[in-house]
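Anyone up for a design puzzle?
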């Protein structure tokens, strides 16, 4: 096959000319490894994009997909139809979700799950005869997906700049980034929570439908809020009759060393969004998971138009893949492994601070960020003209390590099956690469 000729029909706006490079055409995956069409092997230290929690080509999931394909490939979710695959999945998931008697609204991507969560939150208040409660609070620097509504509640201006006007009634609270805390205090007194409280007071709770947050912010550079932030934000929402939407699309299903961060924080969100780790990317599937309290508002006024459905929501094959995937996570103790290996990473990577450009190493479980800075004391960033992130990502890939580098933060999200030996191999590539860097001149 002529790869360069074939690639002309593929339009990936956010990857530039990556398909000009044959080493970016991946032909095979197994466990934590990938191979390109030329046969070169890479460590997938990104799990695709924080997706492949159980590793590539797990045969239990492959077999489940094949078996379901031979029984029922599709049935419409409209007109009251269902199927055993989705019912089995709901039964498996329900005890794992940190919501009492959860209800699952299945769709196909993280963006769709967040979109539905926003729609549900807005309509919920209308059904309660509180039509003014329509505003959504998000966090600066957050990312919730690539639809217009997701861009609107997210906080990455460079992604939404060309798509305005966006959804009205979205407001942003300060990003709880301890490394770059804007309050510059000697000790944390949750000033970011105090600012959130003032924001609610300013816009008035009777106008606010929901607050949405990633419990660990991925696109911002693996930002871990201060301990207790998630619970305090949740309690603030409770006090003001504001729905709490916990976006666990990246963090869910063991990524951080707990099944869900909400569970670890000791909260029961009103809505949880999940996607990536739900099926480990074997077949696209996502869900907005809602509380019984919200669901009851919809069922008792069933004559009112509900949130619109999804043609492929709860797809039989996707549900079979998700069921098999979650079974692997549970039976192979991958959540516990992520926690153990995360502690190993935390200790192992401390030695990277010896490099004068490593400003911060942060994360939890198998979700880590290494922030690069020009000056450790001032935390000054490198100039954009250096194109540091692009060059670092490309350089590490050439060394056989697939990771994501953006905003000068190296993001590592290896599969939950990763061993200490795998982490040692990732560390060795990073250490050797850093040892040969001269950021004052070139990479």
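Challenge accepted. My sequence:
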């Amino acid at each position: 096959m002529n790869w360069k000729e074939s690639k002309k029909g593929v339009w990936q706006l956010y990857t530039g000319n990556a398909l000009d490079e044959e080493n970016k055409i991946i032909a095979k995956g197994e466990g934590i490894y990938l191979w390109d069409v030329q046969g070169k092997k890479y460590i997938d230290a990104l799990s695709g994009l924080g997706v492949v929690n159980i590793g590539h080509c797990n045969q239990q999931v492959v077999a489940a997909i094949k078996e379901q394909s031979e029984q029922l490939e599709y049935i419409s979710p409209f007109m009251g139809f269902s199927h055993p695959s989705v019912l089995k999945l709901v039964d498996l998931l329900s005890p794992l979700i940190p919501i009492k008697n959860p209800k699952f609204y299945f769709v196909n991507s993280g963006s769709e799950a967040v979109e539905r969560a926003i729609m549900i939150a807005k309509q919920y208040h209308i059904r309660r005869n509180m039509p003014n409660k329509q505003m959504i609070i998000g966090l600066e620097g957050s990312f919730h997906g690539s639809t217009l509504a997701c861009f609107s509640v997210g906080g990455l201006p460079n992604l939404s700049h060309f798509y305005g006007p966006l959804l009205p009634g979205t407001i942003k609270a300060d990003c709880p980034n301890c490394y770059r805390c804007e309050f510059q205090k000697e000790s944390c007194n949750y000033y970011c929570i105090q600012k959130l409280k003032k924001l609610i007071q300013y816009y008035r709770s009777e106008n606010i439908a929901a607050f949405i947050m990633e419990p660990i912010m991925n696109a911002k550079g693996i930002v871990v809020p201060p301990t207790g932030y998630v619970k305090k934000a949740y309690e603030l929402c409770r006090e003001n009759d504001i729905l709490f939407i916990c976006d666990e699309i990246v963090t869910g299903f063991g990524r951080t060393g707990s099944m869900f961060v909400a569970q670890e924080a000791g909260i029961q969100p009103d809505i949880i969004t999940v996607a990536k780790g739900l099926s480990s990317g074997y077949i696209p599937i996502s869900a907005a998971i809602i509380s019984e309290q919200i669901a009851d508002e919809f069922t008792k006024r069933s004559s009112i138009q509900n949130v619109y459905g999804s043609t492929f929501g709860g797809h039989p094959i996707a549900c079979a893949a998700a069921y098999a995937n979650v079974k692997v996570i549970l039976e192979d103790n991958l959540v516990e492994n992520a926690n153990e290996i995360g502690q190993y990473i935390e200790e192992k990577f401390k030695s990277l601070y010896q490099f004068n450009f490593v400003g911060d190493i942060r994360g939890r479980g198998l979700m880590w960020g290494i922030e690069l800075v020009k000056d450790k004391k001032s935390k000054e960033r490198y100039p954009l003209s250096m194109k540091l992130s692009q060059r670092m990502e490309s350089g590490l890939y050439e060394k056989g390590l697939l990771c994501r580098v953006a905003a000068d933060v190296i993001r590592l999200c290896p599969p939950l099956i990763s061993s200490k030996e795998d982490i040692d191999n990732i560390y060795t590539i990073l250490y050797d690469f850093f040892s040969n860097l001269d950021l004052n001149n070139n990479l």
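A detail worth pointing out: The two ends are 34 Å apart (CA to CA).
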